[in-house]
Amino acid sequence: MPELPEVETVKNEIMPHLLGKKITRMEALWAKTLCPPETEFNKLVSGLQVTGLSRRGKYIIISLSGGLFISVHLKMSGGLTAVKAETEQFPRFTRAVFHLENGEQVYFTDIRKFGRINLLTSLDTILEKLGPEPLEGDFTPEVLGKRLSGRKGPIKAVLLDQKVLAGVGNMYADEALFKACLNPLRPADSLSKAEVTKLHLAIQSVLHKAIQNKGASVSTYHRPDGSKGGAQLEFNVAHRRGEVCPECGAPINRQLIRQRACYYCPHCQS
DNA sequence: CCCGGAACCTGAAGGC
DNA sequence: TGCCTTCAGGTTCCGG
């Protein structure tokens, strides 16, 4: 599932196919994917040039000439695929198409239709619901400590709150808590200073390593060239139902926390 | 602020 | 083989 490392990888690898190109037309094959709807979207973007690509949390931000932005959220099963030249048949599950100059295209595919491509005049609506970027220099252990203070819910659930920290999802929250040897049910504000520091380091190292491995291909995630990421091969607990802890050999627990599957080692994370 | 639950969707996997 | 149920989990919204 796309979390920060997967979104970062998609952004980086789709960049050469979009940067500097003119958008001739946006096409919606599943109407709800585009907001505003296709006709209105096209009135505003056709002929504009892509001037930049960036990522904030799990959003890909496409900057356009004229001061407009397109945000892409992959949600559960979305992906972008680069295509050199126009083809007559779209791949299965294509929900939207970026038509570019010279007949090039970028497909937005999404089995479950949760993903969204929004046209924005300002990034405020996105930025105001996101906490700090975990890999930026200003994300320090002190900042993490402040974000967790006063939060009495389980640390696992609090880490998934995008307003606390942007970009961490279910898989990497499980991996970071394992690396920091923290029980996912611990109240977020009960962590000692040393534990917060350990968690801060664990979050950064888990995300860095996953980006190096081009994301985790569990279920439907794929890179823009169609290949898979390798980060799932290094998971210690996430999605490892019925397996044992690589550190101590204890069976990995799967427990619902706030309706979300949580994988952890009951021995190492006691 | 905290929490639970539903909604949005489809395909894979497991049970019978 | 085939029907039915469950599971997957990012985000928003609604109600208590």
TrEMBL record:
One of its GO terms (biological process) is base-excision repair. It holds the Pfam family Fapy_DNA_glyco. Belongs to the FPG family. This is Formamidopyrimidine-DNA glycosylase. It catalyses: 2'-deoxyribonucleotide-(2'-deoxyribose 5'-phosphate)-2'-deoxyribonucleotide-DNA = a 3'-end 2'-deoxyribonucleotide-(2,3-dehydro-2,3-deoxyribose 5'-phosphate)-DNA + a 5'-end 5'-phospho-2'-deoxyribonucleoside-DNA + H(+); Hydrolysis of DNA containing ring-opened 7-methylguanine residues, releasing 2,6-diamino-4-hydroxy-5-(N-methyl)formamidopyrimidine. InterPro entries: DNA_glyclase_Znf_dom_DNA_BS (IPR015887), FPG_cat (IPR012319), FPG_Glyclase (IPR020629), FPG_N (IPR035937), H2TH_FPG (IPR015886), Ribosomal_uS13-like_H2TH (IPR010979), Znf_DNA_glyclase/AP_lyase (IPR000214). Its EC number is 3.2.2.23. The keyword Iron does not apply. Gene3D superfamilies: 1.10.8.50, MutM-like, N-terminal. PROSITE patterns: FPG_CAT (PS51068), ZF_FPG_1 (PS01242), ZF_FPG_2 (PS51066). It comes from bioreactor metagenome. Keywords: DNA damage, DNA repair, DNA-binding, Glycosidase, Hydrolase, Lyase, Metal-binding, Multifunctional enzyme, Zinc, Zinc-finger. Residues 2-115 form the Formamidopyrimidine-DNA glycosylase catalytic domain. Its cofactor is Zn(2+).
